[in-house]
Amino acid sequence: MITAIWDQLKGLYSLIVGMIVTGRYFFAPQKTVHYPRKVVDPEDLAAYRGPLELTRGKDDESRTRCISCQMCAKGCPGNCIKVVKGTEGKLPSTWVYDFSLCCLCGACVEVCPASAIDFSHRLYLVVTSREELVMDLLADLKERVAANPLKPAPDVPAAAGQKAADAPSAGAAKNGEV
Amino acid sequence: MSNFSFLNPFGVLDEPGTYMGDFYSHNFSKKAKEGTVILNLGPQHPSTHGVLRVLVELYGEYVMRSEPVLGYLHRSHEKMAEHKTAYGFLPNMGRVDYLNAIGWNWAYAASCEQLAGIQVPERAEYLRVISAELNRISSHLVWWGAFVLDLGAFTPILYAFDDREDLCDILQRVTGSRLTMNYFRFGGVGADGDERFFRLIREFIPRMRERLKMYRALVTDNVILRRRLEGIGSMDADMCLRYGATGPILRAAGVRRDVRKAIPYGIYDRFDYEIPVADRCDNFGRYWVRVEEIEQSLRIVEQAVAQIPEGKHIVDKAPKPAWKIPAGESVFSVEGARGEISVHVISDGGKSPYRVKLRAPGFSNLALFAEAAEGTLLADAIATLGSLDLVIPEIDR
Ligand code: SF4
Ligand code: SF4
Known about the structure:
The complex is a heterodimer of chains A (178) and B (397).
Chain A: H1 2-26, E1 52-54, H2 71-75, E2 81-85, E3 92-98, H3 107-111, E4 117-119, E5 134-136, H4 137-147, H5 160-176
Chain B: H1 23-30, E1 37-41, E2 53-59, E3 62-69, H2 77-81, H3 90-96, H4 101-116, H5 122-150, H6 155-175, E4 184-185, E5 188-189, H7 195-220, H8 223-229, H9 237-243, H10 248-252, H11 259-262, H12 283-307, E6 328-335, E7 340-347, E8 355-359, H13 361-366, H14 369-373, H15 378-387, H16 392-396
Antiparallel strand pairs in B: 1-2, 2-3, 4-5, 6-7, 7-8
The structure holds iron/sulfur cluster (2 copies).
């Protein structure tokens, strides 16, 4: 009889302890990022692997650094890269990437001798069909360049003032959504 | 009363094409006793943690017999290895067991390195230990939450995922992904940890210790949990050895076997930590061992972060994607979150490995279920199934 009562009390006590713990967390700050009202801190995304993107050229930032060497296409375990060499020097004429086959392993990024590709941090990518996952990265690069031309091509003279005005906004855009 | 089965309500058993259910349930129900019901638990049942299917023969609330049916998540990883380059198979390793990706990364990478005689730099060894132990903690946290969820308590899984979120953030910092991590490379790791990575770990360790105290107050000391687990689902040392069970299940049966201590790989011999061993064989023993392991993993990570030397995170001239493994064979075992992971690589020097055999701990661990669940209540059988810490993709591979 006494043990039965004692058991009940012990059970009640462990329940109360549990309730106190839960109650405290009722008022604790949340860790959930309530998208779309909030977005993930870009600093946390520094190493995040989103779909591939072509990096901008060293001298001419509107161009790709790719030299069409095919190392990435050969090393890719998913066969998701197709690079075709164009007529203009070593530059590629086609750079198509199938994100639906990509396992984000990083082999292509690591093997590229020209550091021409990198993972983007596009976390909020949404598409409605599989076809949209096949991305033309040259067009994508062109779009990004059009959105914020960091450094104009050397043969196009640009006003120094405009360059200075562009630089900070371009930098900010690169951190946030590229 | 005649044999009644939901799969075979009309009692027609042996004429092909006339019975209901599939091959497995048909054969299973042949041995059914008088007055029992045959039930399919899964493959879409939430408490089977994925797509495991268990056929159970019930007499009232009691499980008379049971038989796991596998193969619903089979992705032919071993076969894939024969068609990919050795390097190209690395990303598969993160997908064999999605909760303990780093453990598998390690087993495969080290097996190939052993064959090719590649020496891993000091700093990479430390990064390997740190990531593997953090991954072990995150795997145990998911198990902990899901296991308590099986028993009917919903809140703890939210706390477990809260902490796991931190771990995902930390691991994402170096691996680039949050779940199917592909971090190890032949001869090192994929990326070096930066200052923020180590700071996040240093912040995480004391916070996790506090949380473990909270877990104890909330769950471990809870009377309902204790009554649900203590003395249920007995798996003694003899039974574990018979079925080849490893990991926390074996240690909960009182056998002190952990690959990290038994065959120290990497730099595990440099750290001061204990192997939790329980001598009670029941569900609570397995629960206790895993919760203790979180604490011990924290100790290892703490020491590793304090000792990590400067240097390279990967060897110079690390194998490129087209690298061919030299001919020969090698086996490497590591201690994963669920038990002993072994990867056996055989190479004939060609483009792809000739054969890669993956030894998944979950497969052997699951084999204990049928015997342990015999004669228990159905709800206790679910608890026993949960205590095995099954990850079905790993079992099917
Ligand atoms: S990340 Fe891996 S799978 Fe994706 S494109 Fe690069 S090499 Fe191919
Ligand atoms: S490896 Fe780099 S340079 Fe070579 S084709 Fe691929 S992206 Fe271009």
